[in-house]
Amino acid sequence: MSKQKNELWEWTKALLIAVALAVIIRYFLFAPIVVDGSSMMPTLQNGDRMIVNKLGNPDRFDIVVFHAPEKKDYIKRVIGLPGDKIEYKNDTLYINGKAYKEPYLDKYKKDLPEGPLTEDFTLKDTPVGQETVPEGEIFVMGDNRRFSKDSRHIGAVPLKKVIGDTKLIYWPISDIRLVK
Description:
It is an enzyme of class 3 (hydrolase). Keywords: Hydrolase, Membrane, Protease, Transmembrane, Transmembrane helix. It catalyses: Cleavage of hydrophobic, N-terminal signal or leader sequences from secreted and periplasmic proteins. This protein has 3 helices and 12 strands; from the N terminus they run H-E-E-E-E-E-E-E-H-E-E-H-E-E-E. With 180 residues, it is an alpha+beta fold. The protein has a single domain (31-178), classed as Umud Fragment, subunit A. Strands 1, 2, 3, 4, 9, 10, 11 and 12 form an 8-stranded antiparallel β-sheet that branches. It has a 4-stranded antiparallel β-sheet with strand order 7-6-5-8, with no helix packed on it. The mean pLDDT is 88.
Protein backbone atom coordinates (compact mmCIF):
# COMPACT_ATOMS: atom_id res chain seq x y z
CA MET A 1 0.00 0.00 0.00
CA SER A 2 2.79 2.40 0.93
CA LYS A 3 4.60 1.69 -2.36
CA GLN A 4 1.43 2.51 -4.36
CA LYS A 5 0.96 5.81 -2.47
CA ASN A 6 4.59 6.71 -3.09
CA GLU A 7 4.31 5.91 -6.81
CA LEU A 8 1.07 7.92 -7.10
CA TRP A 9 2.72 10.87 -5.35
CA GLU A 10 5.71 10.70 -7.74
CA TRP A 11 3.40 10.70 -10.78
CA THR A 12 1.40 13.61 -9.32
CA LYS A 13 4.60 15.63 -8.72
CA ALA A 14 5.80 14.94 -12.26
CA LEU A 15 2.47 16.02 -13.70
CA LEU A 16 2.37 19.21 -11.59
CA ILE A 17 5.93 20.09 -12.63
CA ALA A 18 5.06 19.52 -16.31
CA VAL A 19 1.97 21.73 -16.06
CA ALA A 20 3.92 24.45 -14.21
CA LEU A 21 6.65 24.41 -16.88
CA ALA A 22 4.07 24.59 -19.67
CA VAL A 23 2.40 27.60 -18.01
CA ILE A 24 5.73 29.38 -17.47
CA ILE A 25 6.83 28.76 -21.07
CA ARG A 26 3.45 29.81 -22.52
CA TYR A 27 2.99 33.00 -20.53
CA PHE A 28 6.54 34.24 -20.07
CA LEU A 29 8.72 32.85 -22.89
CA PHE A 30 6.93 31.68 -26.04
CA ALA A 31 3.37 31.66 -27.36
CA PRO A 32 1.65 30.44 -30.52
CA ILE A 33 -0.15 32.87 -32.83
CA VAL A 34 -2.20 32.47 -35.99
CA VAL A 35 -1.79 35.08 -38.75
CA ASP A 36 -5.23 36.56 -39.44
CA GLY A 37 -5.54 38.52 -42.68
CA SER A 38 -3.37 39.59 -45.57
CA SER A 39 -1.56 42.65 -44.17
CA MET A 40 1.82 40.85 -44.03
CA MET A 41 1.66 39.21 -47.47
CA PRO A 42 3.76 38.02 -49.24
CA THR A 43 5.97 37.37 -46.18
CA LEU A 44 3.18 35.75 -44.15
CA GLN A 45 -0.03 34.14 -45.37
CA ASN A 46 -3.45 34.12 -43.73
CA GLY A 47 -3.57 31.08 -41.43
CA ASP A 48 0.19 30.71 -40.92
CA ARG A 49 0.92 29.54 -37.39
CA MET A 50 3.94 31.08 -35.68
CA ILE A 51 5.81 31.10 -32.39
CA VAL A 52 6.11 34.47 -30.60
CA ASN A 53 9.31 35.02 -28.60
CA LYS A 54 8.43 37.14 -25.55
CA LEU A 55 12.06 37.72 -24.54
CA GLY A 56 14.06 40.77 -25.54
CA ASN A 57 13.21 44.04 -27.24
CA PRO A 58 12.11 44.44 -30.86
CA ASP A 59 14.70 45.60 -33.35
CA ARG A 60 14.32 47.34 -36.70
CA PHE A 61 12.67 45.11 -39.35
CA ASP A 62 11.65 42.45 -36.79
CA ILE A 63 8.12 41.10 -37.16
CA VAL A 64 6.27 41.76 -33.91
CA VAL A 65 2.91 40.93 -32.36
CA PHE A 66 1.23 43.63 -30.26
CA HIS A 67 -2.07 44.53 -28.64
CA ALA A 68 -3.79 46.94 -31.05
CA PRO A 69 -6.34 49.58 -30.07
CA GLU A 70 -9.19 47.44 -31.46
CA LYS A 71 -8.67 44.88 -28.64
CA LYS A 72 -7.01 42.56 -31.17
CA ASP A 73 -3.45 41.40 -31.60
CA TYR A 74 -1.75 42.66 -34.76
CA ILE A 75 1.35 41.31 -36.49
CA LYS A 76 3.50 43.89 -38.29
CA ARG A 77 7.10 44.78 -39.12
CA VAL A 78 9.08 47.28 -37.02
CA ILE A 79 10.12 50.17 -39.24
CA GLY A 80 10.99 52.88 -36.73
CA LEU A 81 12.51 52.80 -33.27
CA PRO A 82 12.24 55.53 -30.61
CA GLY A 83 13.82 58.76 -31.87
CA ASP A 84 13.81 57.72 -35.56
CA LYS A 85 12.65 60.08 -38.28
CA ILE A 86 10.67 58.01 -40.83
CA GLU A 87 9.84 59.05 -44.37
CA TYR A 88 8.80 57.37 -47.62
CA LYS A 89 9.62 58.99 -50.95
CA ASN A 90 9.27 57.34 -54.36
CA ASP A 91 8.60 53.93 -52.75
CA THR A 92 11.87 54.14 -50.77
CA LEU A 93 12.15 54.07 -46.97
CA TYR A 94 14.29 56.75 -45.34
CA ILE A 95 15.22 56.47 -41.68
CA ASN A 96 17.00 59.48 -40.24
CA GLY A 97 17.70 60.64 -43.81
CA LYS A 98 19.34 57.36 -44.92
CA ALA A 99 17.70 55.19 -47.61
CA TYR A 100 17.07 51.57 -46.63
CA LYS A 101 16.46 48.56 -48.86
CA GLU A 102 13.48 46.38 -47.97
CA PRO A 103 14.22 43.06 -49.72
CA TYR A 104 11.11 41.45 -48.21
CA LEU A 105 9.04 43.79 -50.47
CA ASP A 106 10.86 43.06 -53.74
CA LYS A 107 8.43 40.34 -54.86
CA TYR A 108 5.40 42.57 -54.27
CA LYS A 109 6.96 45.58 -55.99
CA LYS A 110 7.84 43.48 -59.04
CA ASP A 111 4.26 42.16 -59.36
CA LEU A 112 2.51 45.53 -58.98
CA PRO A 113 0.44 46.49 -61.99
CA GLU A 114 1.06 50.21 -61.45
CA GLY A 115 2.02 52.83 -58.92
CA PRO A 116 4.10 52.56 -55.76
CA LEU A 117 3.61 49.89 -53.10
CA THR A 118 4.04 52.49 -50.36
CA GLU A 119 2.64 55.98 -50.81
CA ASP A 120 4.84 58.93 -49.84
CA PHE A 121 4.51 60.11 -46.21
CA THR A 122 6.38 61.49 -43.23
CA LEU A 123 5.65 60.82 -39.57
CA LYS A 124 3.91 64.21 -39.35
CA ASP A 125 1.38 62.94 -41.93
CA THR A 126 0.43 60.01 -39.65
CA PRO A 127 -1.35 59.91 -36.27
CA VAL A 128 2.14 60.11 -34.69
CA GLY A 129 1.98 63.79 -35.71
CA GLN A 130 5.58 64.65 -34.94
CA GLU A 131 9.01 64.46 -36.58
CA THR A 132 10.30 61.39 -34.72
CA VAL A 133 8.98 58.17 -33.20
CA PRO A 134 8.20 58.98 -29.54
CA GLU A 135 10.30 57.49 -26.74
CA GLY A 136 9.00 54.13 -25.57
CA GLU A 137 7.18 53.51 -28.86
CA ILE A 138 7.81 51.90 -32.27
CA PHE A 139 6.48 52.59 -35.77
CA VAL A 140 5.17 49.44 -37.50
CA MET A 141 3.93 48.63 -41.00
CA GLY A 142 2.52 45.57 -42.73
CA ASP A 143 4.41 44.23 -45.75
CA ASN A 144 1.21 44.44 -47.82
CA ARG A 145 1.48 48.23 -47.74
CA ARG A 146 -1.62 48.98 -49.78
CA PHE A 147 -3.85 46.87 -47.53
CA SER A 148 -2.42 47.15 -44.03
CA LYS A 149 -3.83 48.93 -41.00
CA ASP A 150 -0.62 49.93 -39.26
CA SER A 151 1.11 52.91 -37.63
CA ARG A 152 0.12 55.08 -40.58
CA HIS A 153 -3.47 54.66 -39.29
CA ILE A 154 -3.26 53.76 -35.58
CA GLY A 155 -0.12 55.70 -34.61
CA ALA A 156 3.04 54.48 -32.94
CA VAL A 157 2.82 51.38 -30.76
CA PRO A 158 3.89 51.63 -27.09
CA LEU A 159 6.60 49.07 -26.31
CA LYS A 160 4.56 47.91 -23.31
CA LYS A 161 1.88 46.69 -25.79
CA VAL A 162 4.37 44.53 -27.72
CA ILE A 163 3.93 40.83 -26.91
CA GLY A 164 7.13 39.79 -28.69
CA ASP A 165 8.79 39.13 -32.01
CA THR A 166 8.25 36.19 -34.31
CA LYS A 167 10.39 34.47 -36.91
CA LEU A 168 9.27 30.84 -37.01
CA ILE A 169 6.35 29.55 -39.08
CA TYR A 170 5.54 26.04 -37.87
CA TRP A 171 2.28 25.38 -39.76
CA PRO A 172 1.36 24.45 -42.43
CA ILE A 173 4.12 21.87 -42.52
CA SER A 174 4.91 22.66 -46.16
CA ASP A 175 5.74 26.27 -45.13
CA ILE A 176 7.93 25.60 -42.06
CA ARG A 177 10.65 28.23 -42.16
CA LEU A 178 12.29 31.22 -40.52
CA VAL A 179 11.08 34.55 -41.91
CA LYS A 180 13.14 37.68 -42.33
